[in-house]
Amino acid sequence: MRGFDLAPLYRATVGFDRIADLMDRALSDDVAQNTYPPYNIEKTADDAYRISIAVAGFNPDELSVEVKDAALVVTARKAPEPAEKTYLHRGIATRAFERRFALADHVKVSGAVHEHGMLHIDLLREIPEAMKPRRIEISRLQPTAAPAIEGKTVETAEA
Hints:
The structure is a single chain. This protein has 159 residues and is mostly beta strands. The chain folds into 2 domains: 1-33, no CATH class; 37-82 and 90-130, Immunoglobulin-like. Helix content is 11%, strand content 33%. The chain contains 2 helices and 9 strands; from the N terminus they run ααβββββββββ. It has helices at residues 7-12, 17-28; strands spanning 39-45, 48-54, 63-68, 71-76, 97-102, 107-115, 118-125, 148-149, 152-153. A 4-stranded antiparallel beta sheet has the order 1-2-7-6, with no helix packed on it.
């Protein structure tokens, strides 16, 4: 696959560093990404989302959910099991993992719940009042007899 150099994009823009980083990250990731553990992302309301991660075999004490550097980081470390267990077949993967999700601006984690082998992380997009669209009233200027320049009335010549 061809590589793309995004250095000119960094030089020609101001304030779009995050978009360039996102593009750079998307282009540099391997196609064969790690798919463990499987997860779903669903939209639960206009400004609410839920990430559900299959974490069978992990208890809540072995899971960690953190937000750092505009990313949601979910990690799991399985505690060592007693040596007296003997498995005839071991099909439930309980290997350690770290899963990262890039968060958009103004997206906050509102909570996390572990139930029935699933970790549900609820996200909420809170747009600040200053950034919400607002309607600007358009006023009309009252017509005047003659335009004013520096406080003086300009007289028009009549022919």
